[in-house]
Inverse folding.
């Protein structure tokens, strides 16, 4: 037997799971999400609700937000969304490259800023980059509201392309940009009313943020329902996760880490094995930080420890996110995910993908068609400014891998838990989501 994970001291646990938070999470896992869904379309209301929910979840209110571009002394505390508005024209994004040492926000004033923040990994995680791209594009539409229609079209089309190409694997990015551009095209590319276009794109971006809040809450609730509950007296549920899938990556509750947090706040006994996630260390830097802020028991492990832990019976379930789920269920996620899935199959451990339907791409038939981003050699050869391999060493750094659908036990979405065969299940889930969001028709109106 290896050391069992330690439970937090009762007093520290009580400190985290205070009554307000417990109350919030009972709602979070239940009726708030349902009622949020019912007001879909009332963008402003849901946006306000989203901001409030996120601030409660993250244990912080806007008034506690850090100064712009000012490093916080010491290790930052407070668990927060990766972005917030400073004004109508400036979005502040947390520089995730600098966590966990310092908490710094950088301004995004338009699509060009958003594209470079996404490319540079200031903001990362599939849902979060889609949301920041949408807001950046909407801010650009505001900047060109008084330009001539031809100038506006050239700038918006160019900005959309730059954003789509900033990171190719996570489909949420192109999906969000396309959604805004569809709205623009529907108003007429050369419409003279620049203010109306800017307003419409801003509303579309806010709808994407608000829907993500609702969807991730629903997803967490669905995932919580299938987590095995250890019998009384047994050890806490041992969850293994990879990369970072919490609020920093998602904008709101998180995907795989949203399920973990919902389970923790539902007072399920659990412990999380956190893969460090070489080479970029999203697990070590971001997931460990988020779980620490949330008070969730966890242990950081080298990626290569996952196999031996599974072999020793110390992993009960694996929860990961997704950057793109192809029509057949093949799933691209952070490099190392495929290895975990193969190991999980070898050891009979459920391997569960937690992904909102905005990460599903029915136009991509299977994993072979998913573009895989190659990132810079420096991510492998240099750690926090320190070179660890000889200068000039050849490096290959694919940022993502593809897990075949046959290795996936379930895909948890905002429309429930999907099982193979995935293509019909994904299509049906999208139909349910679209029906849920469709504006109610007045009685007697043919649909
Ligand atoms: O390269 P990153 O850090 O953007 O990769 C993030 C992941 O792979 C996450 O697991 C994924 O986006 C899914 S959930 C947010």
């Amino acid at each position: 037997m290896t050391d069992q994970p330690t439970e937090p001291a009762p007093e520290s646990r009580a400190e985290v799971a205070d009554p307000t938070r417990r109350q919030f999470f009972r709602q979070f896992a239940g009726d708030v999400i349902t009622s949020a869904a019912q007001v879909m379309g009332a963008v402003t209301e849901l946006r306000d609700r989203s901001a409030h929910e996120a601030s409660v979840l993250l244990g912080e209110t806007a008034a506690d937000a850090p100064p712009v571009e000012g490093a916080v002394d010491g290790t930052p505390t407070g668990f927060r969304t990766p972005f917030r508005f400073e004004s109508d024209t400036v979005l502040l994004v947390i520089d995730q490259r600098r966590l966990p040492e310092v908490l710094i926000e950088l301004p995004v004033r338009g699509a060009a800023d958003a594209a470079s923040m996404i490319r540079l990994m200031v903001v990362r995680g599939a849902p979060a980059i889609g949301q920041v791209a949408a807001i950046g594009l909407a801010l650009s539409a505001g900047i060109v509201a008084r330009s001539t229609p031809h100038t506006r079209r050239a700038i918006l089309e160019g900005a959309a392309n730059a954003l789509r190409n900033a990171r190719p694997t996570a489909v949420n990015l192109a999906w969000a940009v396309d959604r805004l551009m569809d709205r623009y095209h529907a108003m007429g590319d050369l419409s003279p009313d620049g203010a109306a276009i800017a307003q419409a794109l801003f509303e579309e971006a806010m709808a994407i943020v608000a829907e993500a809040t609702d969807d991730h809450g629903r997803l967490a609730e669905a995932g919580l329902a299938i987590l095995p509950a250890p019998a009384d007296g047994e050890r806490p549920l041992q969850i293994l996760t990879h990369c970072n899938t919490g609020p920093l990556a998602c904008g709101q509750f998180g995907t795989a880490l949203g399920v973990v947090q919902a389970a923790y706040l539902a007072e399920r006994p659990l412990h999380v094995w956190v893969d460090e996630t070489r080479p970029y260390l999203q697990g070590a830097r971001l997931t460990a930080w988020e779980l620490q802020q949330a008070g969730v028991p966890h242990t950081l492990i080298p990626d290569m420890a996952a196999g031996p832990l599974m072999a020793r019976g110390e992993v009960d379930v694996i929860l990961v996110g997704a950057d793109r789920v192809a029509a057949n269920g093949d799933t691209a996620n952070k490099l190392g995910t495929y290895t975990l899935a193969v190991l999980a199959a070898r050891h009979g451990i459920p391997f569960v993908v937690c992904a909102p339907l905005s990460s599903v791409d029915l136009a991509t038939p299977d994993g072979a068609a998913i573009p895989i981003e190659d990132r810079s050699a420096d991510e492998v050869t240099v750690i926090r400014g320190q070179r660890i391999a000889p200068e000039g060493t050849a490096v290959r750094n694919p940022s993502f891998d593809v897990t075949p659908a046959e290795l996936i036990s379930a895909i948890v979405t905002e429309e429930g838990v999907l099982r193979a065969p995935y293509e019909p299940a994904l299509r049906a889930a999208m139909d349910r989501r679209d029906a849920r969001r469709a504006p109610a028709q007045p009685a007697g109106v043919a649909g």
In short: Residues 124-127, 170, 243, 245, 249-250, 255, 282, 321-323, 333-334, 399 surround MRU (CB under 6 Å). The longest helix spans residues 194-226. Residues 415 and 429 are 6 Å apart (CA to CA).
